[in-house]
């Protein structure tokens, strides 16, 4: 079984400032890792995913994340945020290979302040 | 269709009423998932279909919850005798195959009063 911890429930940040949203996971098997974004009254949209290969993953909207196996982390970063980035961000994990259900964290609300 | 479509978008049910939530996945997608997202929480897995076969229903919270996908396309999540704790957003996602991106619908917000 896997689990995900997003310690920060809310992160306020000024526009054009950098941001890091933290995610730690636990698993006894190899994992796939994901970040999803959810805008108000919308479904989830995939920002980026790590399946294998390079530990630095680049996604949409200028976001990137780094898989750190030793620290069991997959933090999401953006060097300069925009008002439009205000949303809730979910980190998620699944076992690798074949069908594996996805386990989500509790989410981090990113509030970009003008 | 262009994406995963869920209906209705909003449903208000009186406690004890039965409800049915519909999911139209992306055409040709083999895998279909249902998730429950309570207020302020992340989505929690309910059940998984591969074509018409329900391969995992370990997340269904009680026997009041039932899901089907009889022809391997449209899926329905049914909740019998709804209770207040069933109030949540129910998300459907479809996936073309293993290790491919899962696409989510906008969800159905169920409020039980």
What is the element layout, followed by pairings?
The complex is a heterodimer of chains A (114) and B (113).
Chain A: E1 3-5, E2 10-14, E3 19-21, E4 24-26, E5 31-38, E6 44-50, E7 56-58, E8 64-68, E9 73-78, E10 87-95, E11 103-104, E12 108-113
Parallel strand pairs in A: 2-12
Antiparallel strand pairs in A: 1-4, 3-9, 5-6, 5-10, 7-8, 8-9, 10-11, 10-12
Chain B: E1 5-7, E2 10-13, E3 19-24, E4 31-37, E5 44-50, E6 53-56, E7 65-68, E8 75-79, E9 88-95, E10 102-104, E11 108-112
Parallel strand pairs in B: 2-11
Antiparallel strand pairs in B: 1-3, 3-8, 4-5, 4-9, 5-6, 7-8, 9-10, 9-11
Q: Any overview of this molecule?
A:
- The complex is a heterodimer of chains A (114) and B (113).
- By secondary structure, chain A is mostly beta strands.
- Helices cover 0% and strands 53% of the residues of chain A.
- Chain A has strands spanning 3-5, 10-14, 19-21, 24-26, 31-38, 44-50, 56-58, 64-68, 73-78, 87-95, 103-104, 108-113.
- In chain A, strands 2, 5, 6, 10, 11 and 12 form a 6-stranded mixed beta sheet that branches. A 4-stranded antiparallel beta sheet of chain A has the order 3-9-8-7, with no helix packed on it.
- In chain A, a hairpin with a 5-residue loop joins β7 and β8 (64-68).
- Chain A is globular and about 40 Å long.
- Chain A starts with a strand and ends with a strand.
- The mean pLDDT of chain A is 93.
- Chain B has 113 residues and is an all-beta fold.
- Helix content of chain B is 0%, strand content 50%.
- Chain B contains no helices and 11 strands.
- Chain B has strands spanning 5-7, 10-13, 19-24, 31-37, 44-50, 53-56, 65-68, 75-79, 88-95, 102-104, 108-112.
- In chain B, the strands form 2 sheets. In chain B, strands 2, 4, 5, 6, 9, 10 and 11 form a 7-stranded mixed beta sheet that branches.
- The radius of gyration of chain B is 13 Å and the shape is globular.
- The mean pLDDT of chain B is 94.
- The chains are: A mainly beta (114), B mainly beta (113).
- Chain A binds chain B through residues 4, 32, 36, 41-46, 49, 51, 90, 92, 97-99, 101-107, and chain B through 4, 31, 33, 35, 40-45, 48, 50, 55-56, 59, 91, 93, 98-99, 101-102, 104-107.
């Amino acid at each position: 079984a896997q689990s995900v911890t997003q310690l920060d429930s809310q992160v306020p940040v000024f526009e054009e400032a950098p941001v890091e949203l933290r995610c730690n996971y636990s698993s006894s098997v190899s994992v796939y890792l994901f970040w999803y974004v959810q805008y108000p009254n919308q479904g989830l949209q995939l920002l980026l995913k790590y399946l294998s290969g390079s530990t630095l993953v680049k996604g949409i909207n200028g976001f990137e994340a780094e898989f750190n196996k030793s620290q069991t982390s997959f933090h999401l970063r953006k060097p300069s945020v925009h008002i439009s980035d205000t949303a809730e961000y979910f980190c998620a994990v699944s076992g690798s290979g074949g069908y594996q259900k996805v386990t989500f964290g509790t989410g981090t609300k990113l509030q970009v302040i003008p | 269709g262009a994406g995963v479509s869920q209906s209705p978008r909003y449903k208000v049910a009186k406690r004890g009423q039965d409800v049915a939530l519909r999911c139209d996945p992306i055409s040709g997608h083999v895998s279909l998932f249902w998730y429950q997202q309570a207020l302020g929480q992340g989505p929690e897995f309910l059940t998984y279909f591969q074509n018409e076969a329900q391969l995992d229903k370990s997340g269904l919270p009680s026997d009041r919850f039932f899901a089907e996908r009889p022809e391997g396309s449209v899926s329905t999540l049914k909740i019998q005798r709804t209770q207040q704790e069933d109030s949540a957003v129910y998300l459907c996602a479809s996936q073309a195959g293993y290790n491919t991106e899962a696409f989510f619908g906008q969800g159905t917000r169920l409020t039980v009063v």
